[in-house]
Amino acid sequence: MAPDTGLAFLSYVVLWPVFMIVSSTFRWNLQDLRLSDQAIPGHFTWFHWIRVLASDTSYALFYHPVFHSICVGAATSLLSMVIGCGLAWLVTRTDMPLKRTITFLAVIPYLLPAWVLSQAWLMFFKNEKIGGVPGFIQSIFHISPPDWLSYGFVPIVLTLSLHDCVYFFLIVGAALSTINPQLEEAASLAGARRFTILRRIVLPVVLPSILSAVILVFTKALSSYGVPQLLGTPVDYQMIATMLYSSMRSRMTSEASVLSILLLLISVAAIAFYFRALGKRRSFVTVSGKSAGGSAQALGRWRNPAAVVVLLLMAAMAVLPLLVLLAQTFLLKEGAPIGPQNFTLHYWIGGSDPDINSGEPGILKNPIFLLALKNSLKIAGISSILAAAGGLLLGYVTVRSKRSWLGRLIDNVSFFPYLIPGISLSAMYITMFAKPVLYLPALYGTLSLLVLITVVKELPFTVKAGGAAIMQLGEELEEAAVVGGASWLTSFRRILLPLTRKSFVSLFLLVFIGAMKEMELIIILVTPRTETLTTLTFFYAERNYTQLMNVMLMIIIAIVLIVYALSVKLGKADLTQGIGGQ
Amino acid sequence: MRSNWKTIGSLLSSTMLAVTLSACGSGNNGGSEGAAAVQSSAAGEASTSPVLTTTAPAATVSASPVDALYEQAKKEGKVIVYSTSGRANDAAKTFMKQYPGIQVEVSKVKSDQMMDKVAREQDAGQFNPDVLVTKEVSGAVDFEMVKQGRYLKYLPEDIAPHEDEPFRTQAESVAGYAEFRTLWYNSDHYDKPPVTNWWDLTTPEWKGKVYTADPVGDPSFMNLFSTFAVHADDMAAAYKMKFGKDIELHGTENAGYEFIKQLLDNQLVTLDGSTDVLDAIGKKDSDALAIAVTGEVADLKEEGWHAKPIYDLKPKTSVVDAGYFFLAKNAPHEAAAKLFIRWMLGEADGQGAGIEPFNEVGSWVPRDDVKTKNEIAFDQLNLWNYDGEALYKIEPKVRDFWIKNK
């Protein structure tokens, strides 16, 4: 196979859709006949760009929403950095008790769909503005929370931060755990204070990981849709992504395309900023091949209080919503008081009963469930392994490539999939893969396409996190291996892979979770044969079968937790331990 | 080191390919199956006319059109349905009991995504679905799909005489059911509808007390507001009826836009969807009003909503929102598709069980020989017809107006 095939393939799956989107914004299409009498489908026009950027609608359509998006993006990355890095530091660098439990719990908010967290917020903080059953604050304290606390910017940022801080936790945690404590000890012996050690030794070493996570969380927040839709609508807090979906749903496709290109440009600017912040020193070698043992930072009298506070926060953020959802699956009638007359296992194991949900049987009795389960496991399993391996490889290229333009190119290009709305990307994939292309058979209608699009959509994360992991490794190790006669592949497999094991497992895990939850990306690509757990969940959600939907969520979360536990155990990738494990 | 990235690239792509192709091998039949289907339907009936009323395929000679279709459909073995509504799943269950040997596979897709999916599939030469169940999206379904010959109207000859207008001859296709969006009130708080005219909502009494699903995020709600602008004359007349004087426009184009502006100025509250809106007024005692779709009536008990829709408002209660049935262009299982559409329409006599999911409270079947479960018959409802052509043109303008004034 020609050596450039790989890049050609990447270009096809990533750059081609972007090119298609960009070029569509400069042409009239069939739909535009509704917008202008001058529209001639297929001909060149500036119309769409002028409409978005310089018309009397531009402020409402673009400038105001983009201001909101950037504020939310910046605040969310800042807040999740504080939470994620703080937690990561506590579990990797200190002697806090119950580290493993806390590490395990830290992933749970990410397992819940973000809208569950938003609804939990509303349950507590909603005020009279949106009617219905009052929030807990209102009914208990008889104080009406102000609108700014209940809806819009504040809750959007809080929910997104709780949901996405796991990126900081895992990526930065993996980096932190590679630092040899002797570095800190040496500094401490030399008389440095704890804060100085943090600032002068720990921070520079984990800076690439932090910046990677900043970029990821920033762009994720920028393109988030479900949370702002739920929490922003009551106070009309529009963001670019909500506008974009509105354009798409109202068949204003070119307008949606212009908006997504603008989102893309903002992120490219953010990445340029990232490179500037990293400066010339792009490599921060911390692993020299020697196992890092030694003692952790002693928290002294803060040891137990820290653990208690963290555990309580975790319980409120993760365990409580989970238990509420679980309890709801056993309620015959949603919202009715809990008691024996309202308790049922119907939604788990019941047969078809015409009085409940138009005869929809319990999940475990539904024949589609088994097919969906198999499909989901296949898609998530295969794509997360591929994505993790691919991420490390491409991350390697971005870090090590001697031609730095190539590294930057891949770094930038790999980001595009985050910013093309999942729906547009998957719609384009129908066209691209409905017919055989080059040596590829027609993939549309097969699970392969769902795997492919999942891997592509996660590229931004995997490449960034993979690169951050590689950056910590000294080049000498590979060079030594190559000098010793090992092929590049052998040195990758025998040296790089073991040393980046934690990052690999983190990558695998986050992609796996993402794939198990993925909905928007695959909804128009699925055919009845490629039904997945999430499409089934979506079906229940649309029909308002709350309990069945919650059972599905529980099953998805259970699967992820099992895979999580297994991968940590089998991959020997306990975050709380230094490289090499103890 | 120099050429390592090349090795990596090819390594990556070859593993990706190898794994995707081998691990999911079972799915690969899709391509060839699709191709075969294209051929067979191209060889068969390649009608480009948007109206198909043929019933019996020439191959089989049989007593009734249904028997003939069934014979043919059994050979096809299955029927693929893309549907915006879960009602199609319910109809599929009874269909498979009635016509064993034919498997119904329903994919749930939103109406706008269905358009993209089907158009792209067809352009690539893949003809996957047989039957489409969809709502309109501001006239786009008609303009982008029906007029382009992608969705085909199918009204069996023996059912046609019973189908109500406009769905028999005027509308883009046969409607399996029709709903509409209207005002709802809390049935514990009020014992009769507290308003009779849409303009009531612009008075101080209703300030901050009207909820709607956000039309910016949901075009089916925008359709209602656009219809006010389309029928501005009706809105002006209703204004005069309410206030006893001619309407005065405050920088707006007509009475429809003026109504939207005054409604927004009166602090209309937008929420995420129909369910949220009914939660807002129906979960506990409330003096507020909500705009939601009538189809939710069927869920009142299950959701615990104490709410009722208003079925008579001036100038008109609402605009019809029909659930259309279409045959897909080059449907690979055409006979089974026709059989399934017949089933959902209730067969020749309107008695078939397939009609039941559509004939519900809050949802009307537009057939003259089918008894509705609602207190009011469909033709007694005071509704605007769905003017797709006008809506398609005006909706971007109304949406702009909305986001600028909100």
UniProtKB/TrEMBL annotation, chain A:
* PROSITE patterns according to UniProt: ABC_TM1
Keywords on record: Cell inner membrane, Cell membrane, Membrane, Transmembrane, Transmembrane helix, Transport
State the membrane topology.
Multi-pass membrane protein
What InterPro entries does the record point to?
A: MetI-like, MetI-like_sf
Localization (cell):
Cell inner membrane; Cell membrane
Span of domain ABC transmembrane type-1? 66-274, 373-567
Q: Where are the transmembrane segments?
A: 7-26, 66-90, 102-124, 153-176, 197-218, 256-275, 306-327, 379-397, 409-431, 437-456, 504-527, 547-566
Does the record's keyword annotation contain Cell inner membrane? yes
List the Gene3D superfamilies: MetI-like
Pfam families membership: BPD_transp_1
Its family remark reads: Belongs to the binding-protein-dependent transport system permease family.
Q: Which protein are we looking at?
A: Iron ABC transporter permease
Which species is this record about? Answer: Paenibacillus hexagrammi
Read off the lineage from the record: Bacteria, Bacillati, Bacillota, Bacilli, Bacillales
Automatic annotation (TrEMBL), chain B:
Domain of life where this protein originates: Bacteria
Against PROSITE patterns, the record matches this protein to: PROKAR_LIPOPROTEIN (PS51257)
Q: Which residues form the signal peptide?
A: 1-25
What keyword terms does UniProt attach to this protein? Signal
Keyword Chloroplast recorded: no
Q: Which SUPFAM superfamilies match?
A: Periplasmic binding protein-like II
According to UniProt, the name of this protein is Extracellular solute-binding protein
What lineage does the source organism belong to?
Answer: Bacteria, Bacillati, Bacillota, Bacilli, Bacillales
